[in-house]
């Protein structure tokens, strides 16, 4: 499999693998600009020296031809990739992202924690008391109300919902690309202020495109809206917008995202719906 | 005679079956043997096939002339069979019977076939010749002749079948491997080895896999055992190299040879002899340099072949050194620019093999010059690349591989590489560049460690190669590289710095493990004790960060770094004792220094992390056995002795400072964790440990003797300064003597460990209890001595109103673990059953040991800790009439019911365990009521009396308490299916249908206890559990209630109780148990839900619906079709179970568990039922689930989101 990393196609040296990948790209109309990549590949292989000179690559005196070829097409791939909106975005490690789910699982995965369940289980005490059984149903392992504490919806939960959406262009999530950030999510009134679960609340999400001229900002905004509409109760209003000065046309994009008619129309477009579904596939 | 042989020959030719043919051949062989192979007999035997030979020759001539192939081919078959008769006879013949001239004659006869009869004679001749070679009178000259004869086949060889060719290959193989024939061949052909050329010409077109394997073997033998001239060698090389790279077509039928076998066979040819070197290396390198035409698999094959040649060729000066430049120039790019991990690894192996070969063997080391030149060559091309972040890793791999190829190479140039890396670290290009360099440095440290471990004695080699340079270079690393980088990266690492910090931590651990290489063979630590301690304190400081730093300062603490830290410390602790002390000292100081009287949740969490980590680091691996300077052997138990004693000292210190019991519990959890980790380290464990304690004059266990036996030998001179139990118990440890030479069997360590663990449990039990006639300072006149919670703990509880539970729960768990590892006999001889009650206080035997309101509930927990892991056989003594078990249960039943007393249920569990593990004494009279019968009848009698009390209406709690107590006694008997239970079941049914509704409802709800799986009533805890007891319980408890449960209506309020009782029982059973009654059960569920969510639920709460919903979920999974008819009413009730009541409604909101179960069931419906059944509810349920997405409980929201997605798909 060919992976895209730090603006460079990391490929196996074997031309067969590359050809297979490109054929798949062409067949599936995937995002890696197959035609241009294929062209680059062909060029690199027919006239490698020319391209190497072009990009000031100086091979070692004894370096075999196969390495020159490889370097040539690596350079060309890099060049061809640069026609993406942002060919080289900053990518965060998944473990660095704020997440309630991952924190819980990551904290307990070392070998030193293998006996935590035996040693530090909260259930050890008071499981069989008479007092526990008089007024309510005797507790069980999975259905104990004490295990189900009341925790209102907060910003981190909203972040968990949308950070796992895939980017339409890169094989990374919106969280990894910092398109959505925890600090840019706000719930008003704050969940702790009002205990009434049925009160109207507004969730504001500011999206930061990786570059100011991102043509897919609307699609990303739409995906965030669809995801939150699917996951939040009816008393939550959504306000999805581009972060101020993060996009060259943020006014227009914001207008588009706010317009219910246009959002509804967009969702009826099969192609767009397909893109959105693909983006939401990675949501858990 | 002649006729007989002719007949046999005819029969042989005509026979179709192998067995018949073999019989005939055996007969002929016997005939020859009986005549002692006389000339006439042998002549008639040979002449018996003459008829086919003659006629066939004529026929063949004719057929050629007339063009009639058909006739000829028929004769060929017959002729082949006739010749086969001779070959088969030879096979059956005694090998010593033929005379030399006869062997010669026969060899000549069959040999002539290769020239005369290439169509019919070859197979039989090959077989016959093969037999003749094994004859006693076979002469080597005949072997030479045979090879010459066979070679006459020339082009016809290819036309033979694969099986025939295989016979011939095997013949060749046998002949050339025979030393006599080999020497005859050398003599005959001399250096020119002409026969090899003939063989090569004959066999060069072979394609059959099986034959190829033999052919490759023949070539290998020719190259290794003969000395062919250069021309012949080239011919041979051409023959086998033509096959390279070899592959095999996949075939439907198995041929018994795989492509890998062929590859290995061919590789053996390449690496057969160093005289091939001048051909092999250029050839393989040329193949490698073919560019993209070479696939990864072929490249791997080439690299492995290269490696095999390098490793097997002797005399590397002439066979390897001239080609090193060429090999290196081709291979370096495979690593430098290669991106396929496998080829890169294989290349590194080749480079390593060159280094190892140039080093020579231990007995015959080679000249140092080639190694030096080789390393210079690699360094010359690679060291510069270290400064280029793109190639750092690859260049580093290349350099490290050649340097680590042998100890000599390491000593020669290791320091040079370290210098180069250090220089680059000083001028880093990026954090990842530094990380790569550190990775490299760590790899070198690892290699150095392996070398020092392998050098056992000070070899003369070390004397020749001074090690000062090596020591200086590596010694300087800590201050020059690791310490500055640690300072730079350890505070708030982020992004790429995290990876760097991980490498630094790994490296620090490796530094501590480094040893000096001294020419006298003595090995001591490379770093001084101070440096080791400094490293230890750096690592410990990091481990203790959760306690020492605030949450804001630790935002960047990542699990990866913490795990690396843990692993590093673990490595260090196992390797070097000098780190142990600072680790424990710093941890102790940091923990004890804090004020733990009212710790925050975060502090407790941090302490928990640290305690778990220290237990893992110090006890999860057994230290290697070493001989100490005083001559005695080190003790593998040291680490556990040290950690347990330091934790117990901390326990005392914290208690004095009035720490919260939860904190004390965590310290005990540290000891418990150390035990668990140490158990794993001792794996594979003996199933159970046998301990036979000595008894004192009074008949009690000599615990001090047991303790001494466990820890003798742990207090060695080198361990002085470390913590030891002698600090805790100076009296017991005063006369400790080192044990004699210890056996190295881990079993012994484990037995000692178990003894010490047992003693630790006893120590802590004694620590938390006291023997007194009073409770909490209130004197009790005339009372027997009784066991109470010790004052310092009781005061903690009284003064600060802390609950002691967390501490006692830990103690209970630890006691259970330790007693579980003993077998029944040991448990009995240690008198653990009695100790369970007297809690190791022997003088309390006559005192109050039983459950009582005055005895703190926690002490019952301690009792349970020991009893729950005992084998029934170890508890027999408890059940004597008037024994402890009777006293305890009676006292439990007599305790005045006090519903406000929300005590822990430890006493209940003890009663259940006693009821379950009872074994009738073989000496007891059969008509006497057993222990269980008597306590059960007592409990039931109490219950019956209590329930008939008219005041119960005003005090329903009293009735509930009685039900609870009776069920506790029942609880122990159900898993063992005690025979006395069924006759008392009607009393329980009566309680369920009691006229005081609250008592009846409570009894119905509580019935689930009888079939619930309690940890203390599991087979792991050695409880008596019959496999089908749940079916039994269902049949006697729930089944009789069906008639009185249905129909549920207002006229008969007890009906609802019965329904509830059934559901509460089946909730704890699998579907298989109640599947037959599923229709009735669904009706009960609907009735219960309607009652609970209806306008008048009475005293029942909506939470009581959990049982009904849980059973409903189970039915949905197992038999959803049964639900179809009831779908409307089920949906109606599910909505009530999930939805919040509308404002102003008097209905109580359902509990979180209830909502969760309701949503889970809703979520499961779309996958089970077709759309037509669900569409009508779709709108309502979608709205409900959307609202549930805003549920206050996160878990419910998550379930609702999943359910919403499924229901959304319905539209």
From TrEMBL, chain A:
It comes from Coniochaeta pulveracea. This is Uncharacterized protein. Keywords: Chromosome partition. One of its GO terms (biological process) is protein maturation. Transmembrane segments: none annotated. SUPFAM superfamilies: Fe-S cluster assembly (FSCA) domain-like. The lineage of its organism: Eukaryota, Fungi, Dikarya, Ascomycota, Pezizomycotina. The keyword Phosphoprotein does not apply. It comes from the Eukaryota. Residues 91-116 are annotated as: Disordered. Belongs to the MIP18 family.
Automatic annotation (TrEMBL), chain B:
It is found in: Nucleus. It comes from the Eukaryota. Key component of the cytosolic iron-sulfur protein assembly (CIA) complex, a multiprotein complex that mediates the incorporation of iron-sulfur cluster into apoproteins specifically involved in DNA metabolism and genomic integrity. In the CIA complex, MMS19 acts as an adapter between early-acting CIA components and a subset of cellular target iron-sulfur proteins. The keyword Manganese does not apply. One of its GO terms (cellular component) is cytosolic [4Fe-4S] assembly targeting complex. Keywords: DNA damage, DNA repair, Nucleus, Repeat. GO terms for biological process: DNA repair; iron-sulfur cluster assembly; protein maturation. Residues 73-335 form the MMS19 N-terminal domain. Residues 956-1165 form the MMS19 C-terminal domain. Belongs to the MET18/MMS19 family. The keyword Nucleotidyltransferase does not apply. This is MMS19 nucleotide excision repair protein. InterPro entries: ARM-type_fold (IPR016024), MMS19 (IPR039920), MMS19_C (IPR024687), MMS19_N (IPR029240).
């Amino acid at each position: 499999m060919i992976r895209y990393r730090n603006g460079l196609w990391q490929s196996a040296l074997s031309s067969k693998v590359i050809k297979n990948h490109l054929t798949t790209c062409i067949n599936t109309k995937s995002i890696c600009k197959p035609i241009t990549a294929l062209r680059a590949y062909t060029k690199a292989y027919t006239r490698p020296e020319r391209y190497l000179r072009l990009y000031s690559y100086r091979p070692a005196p004894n370096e075999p031809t196969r390495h020159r070829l490889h370097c040539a097409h690596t350079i060309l791939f890099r060049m061809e990739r640069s026609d993406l909106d942002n060919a080289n975005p900053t990518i965060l490690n998944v473990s660095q992202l704020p997440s309630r789910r991952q924190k819980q699982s990551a904290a307990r995965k070392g070998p030193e924690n293998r006996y935590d369940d035996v040693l530090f289980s909260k259930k050890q005490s008071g499981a069989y008391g008479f007092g526990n059984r008089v007024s309510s149903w005797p507790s069980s392992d999975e259905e104990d109300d004490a295990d189900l504490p009341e925790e209102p919806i907060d910003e981190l939960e909203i972040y968990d919902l949308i950070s796992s959406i895939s980017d339409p262009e890169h094989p990374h999530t919106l969280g990894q690309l910092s398109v959505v950030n925890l600090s840019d999510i706000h719930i008003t009134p704050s969940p702790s202020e009002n205990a009434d679960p049925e009160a109207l609340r507004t969730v504001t999400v500011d999206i930061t495109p990786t570059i100011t001229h991102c043509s897919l900002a609307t699609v990303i905004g739409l995906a965030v809206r669809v995801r939150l509409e699917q996951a939040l109760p009816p008393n939550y209003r959504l306000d999805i917008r581009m972060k101020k000065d993060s996009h060259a046309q943020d006014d227009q994009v914001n207008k588009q995202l706010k317009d219910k008619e246009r959002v509804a129309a967009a969702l009826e477009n099969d192609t767009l719906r397909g893109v959105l579904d693909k983006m939401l596939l990675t949501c858990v | 005679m002649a006729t007989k042989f002719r007949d046999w020959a005819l029969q042989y030719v005509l026979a179709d079956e192998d067995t018949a043919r073999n019989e005939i051949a055996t007969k002929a062989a016997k005939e020859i043997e009986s005549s002692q192979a006389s000339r006439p007999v042998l002549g008639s035997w040979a002449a018996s096939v003459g008829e086919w030979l003659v006629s066939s020759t004529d026929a063949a001539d004719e057929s050629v002339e007339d063009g009639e192939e058909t006739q000829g081919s028929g004769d060929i078959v017959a002729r082949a069979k006739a010749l086969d008769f001779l070959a088969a006879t030879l096979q059956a013949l005694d090998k010593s019977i033929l005379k030399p001239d006869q062997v010669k004659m026969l060899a000549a006869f069959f040999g002539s076939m290769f020239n005369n009869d290439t169509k019919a004679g070859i197979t039989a001749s090959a077989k016959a010749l093969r037999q003749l070679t094994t004859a006693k009178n076979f002469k080597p000259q005949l072997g030479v002749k045979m090879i010459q004869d066979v070679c006459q086949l020339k082009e016809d060889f290819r036309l033979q079948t694969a099986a025939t060719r295989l016979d011939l290959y095997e013949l060749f193989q046998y002949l050339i491997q025979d030393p006599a024939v080999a020497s005859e061949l050398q003599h005959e052909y001399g250096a020119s080895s002409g026969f090899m050329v003939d063989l090569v010409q004959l066999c060069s077109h072979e394609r059959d896999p099986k034959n190829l394997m033999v052919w490759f073997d023949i070539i290998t033998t020719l190259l290794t055992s003969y000395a062919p001239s250069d021309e012949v060698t080239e011919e041979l090389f051409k023959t086998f190299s033509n096959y390279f790279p070899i592959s095999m077509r996949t075939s439907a039928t198995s041929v018994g040879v795989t492509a890998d076998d062929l590859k290995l066979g061919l590789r053996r040819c390449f690496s057969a002899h160093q005289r091939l070197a001048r051909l092999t290396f250029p050839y393989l390198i040329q193949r490698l340099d073919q560019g993209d035409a070479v696939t990864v698999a072929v490249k791997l094959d080439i690299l492995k072949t290269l490696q095999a040649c390098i490793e097997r060729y002797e005399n590397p000066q002439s066979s390897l050194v001239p080609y090193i430049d060429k090999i290196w120039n081709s291979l370096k790019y495979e690593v430098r620019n290669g991106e396929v991990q496998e080829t890169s690894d294989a290349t590194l192996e080749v480079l390593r093999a060159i280094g190892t070969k140039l080093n020579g063997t231990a007995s015959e080391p080679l000249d140092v010059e080639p190694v030096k030149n080789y390393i210079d060559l690699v360094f010359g091309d690679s060291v510069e690349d270290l400064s280029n972040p793109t190639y750092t890793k690859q260049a580093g791999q290349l350099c490290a591989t050649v340097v680590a190829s042998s100890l000599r190479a390491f000593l020669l140039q290791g320091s040079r590489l370290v210098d180069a890396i250090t220089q680059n670290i000083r001028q880093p290009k990026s954090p990842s560049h530094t990380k790569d360099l550190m990775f490299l440095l760590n790899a070198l440290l690892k290699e150095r460690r392996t070398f020092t471990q392998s050098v056992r004695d000070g070899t003369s080699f070390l004397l020749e190669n001074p090690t000062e340079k090596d020591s200086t270079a590596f010694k300087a690393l800590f201050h020059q590289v690791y310490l500055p980088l640690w300072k730079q990266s350890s505070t708030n690492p982020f992004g790429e710095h995290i990876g760097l910090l991980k490498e630094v931590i790994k490296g620090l651990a490796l530094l501590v493990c480094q040893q000096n290489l001294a020419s006298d063979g003595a090995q001591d630590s490379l770093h001084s004790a101070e440096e080791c301690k400094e490293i230890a304190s750096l690592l410990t400081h990091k481990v203790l960060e959760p306690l020492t730093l605030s949450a804001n300062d630790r935002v960047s603490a990542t699990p990866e770094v913490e795990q690396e830290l843990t692993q590093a410390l673990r490595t260090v602790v196992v390797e070097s004792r000098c780190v142990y002390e600072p680790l424990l000292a710093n941890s102790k100081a940091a923990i004890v220094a804090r004020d733990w009287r009212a710790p925050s949740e975060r502090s407790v969490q941090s302490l928990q992390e640290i305690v778990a980590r220290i237990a893992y680091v110090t006890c999860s691996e057994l230290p290697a056995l070493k001989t100490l300077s005083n001559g005695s052997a080190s003790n593998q138990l040291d680490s556990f002795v040290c950690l347990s004693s330091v934790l117990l000292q901390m326990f005392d210190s914290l208690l004095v400072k009035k720490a919260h019991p939860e904190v004390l519990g965590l310290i005990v959890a540290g000891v418990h964790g150390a035990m668990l980790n140490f158990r794993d380290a001792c794996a594979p464990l003996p199933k159970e440990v046998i301990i036979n304690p000595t008894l004192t004059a009074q008949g009690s266990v000599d615990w001090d003797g047991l303790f001494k036996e466990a820890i003798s030998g742990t207090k060695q001179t080198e361990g002085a300064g470390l913590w030891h139990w002698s600090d805790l118990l100076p009296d017991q440890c005063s006369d400790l003597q080192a044990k004699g030479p210890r056996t190295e069997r881990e079993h012994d360590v484990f037995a000692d460990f178990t003894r010490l663990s047992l003693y630790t449990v006893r120590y802590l039990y004694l620590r938390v209890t006291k023997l007194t006639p009073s409770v909490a300072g209130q004197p009790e006149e005339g009372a027997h001595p009784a066991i109470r919670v010790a004052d310092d703990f009781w005061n903690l509880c009284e003064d600060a109103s802390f609950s002691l539970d967390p501490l006692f729960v830990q103690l209970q768990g630890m006691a259970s673990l330790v007693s579980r590892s003993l077998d029944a006999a040991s448990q009995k001889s240690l008198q653990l059953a009695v100790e369970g009650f007297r809690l190791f206080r022997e003088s309390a035997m006559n005192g109050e040991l039983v459950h009582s309101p005055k005895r703190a509930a926690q002490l019952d927990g301690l009792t349970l800790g020991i009893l729950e892991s005992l084998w029934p056989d170890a508890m027999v003594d408890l059940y004597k009439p008037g024994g402890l078990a009777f006293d305890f249960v009676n006292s439990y039943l007599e305790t005045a019911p006090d519903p406000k007393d929300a005590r822990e249920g430890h006493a209940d569990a003890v009663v259940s365990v006693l009821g379950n593990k009872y074994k009738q004494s073989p000496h007891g009279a059969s008509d006497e009521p057993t222990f269980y019968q008597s306590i059960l009848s007592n409990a039931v009698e109490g219950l019956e009396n209590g329930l008939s009390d008219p005041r119960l209406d005003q005090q329903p709690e009293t009735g509930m308490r009685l039900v609870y107590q009776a069920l506790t006694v029942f609880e122990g008997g159900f898993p063992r299916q005690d025979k006395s239970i069924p006759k008392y079941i009607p009393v329980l049914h009566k309680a369920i249908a009691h006229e005081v509704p609250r008592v009846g409802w409570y009894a119905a709800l509580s019935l689930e206890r009888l079939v619930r799986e309690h940890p203390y009533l599991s087979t792991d805890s050695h409880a008596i559990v019959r496999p089908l007891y749940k079916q039994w319980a269902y049949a006697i408890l729930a089944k009789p209630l069906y008639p009185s449960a249905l129909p549920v209506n207002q006229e008969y309020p007890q009906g609802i109780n019965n329904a509830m009782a059934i559901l509460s029982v089946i909730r704890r059973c699998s579907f298989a148990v109640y599947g037959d009654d599923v229709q009735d059960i669904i009706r009960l569920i609907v009735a219960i839900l309607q009652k609970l969510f209806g306008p008048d639920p009475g005293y029942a709460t909506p939470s009581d619906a959990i049982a009904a919903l849980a059973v409903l979920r189970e039915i949905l999974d197992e038999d959803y079709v049964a639900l179809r008819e009831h779908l409307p009413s089920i949906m109606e009730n599910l909505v009530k179970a999930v939805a919040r009541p509308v404002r102003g409604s008097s209905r109580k909101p359902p509990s979180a568990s209830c909502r969760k179960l309701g949503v889970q069931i809703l979520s499961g419906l779309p996958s089970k039922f077709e759309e037509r059944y669900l569409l009508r509810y779709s709108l309502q349920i979608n709205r409900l689930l959307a609202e549930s997405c805003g549920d206050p409980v996160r878990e419910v929201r998550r379930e609702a989101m999943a359910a919403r997605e499924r229901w959304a798909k319905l539209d």
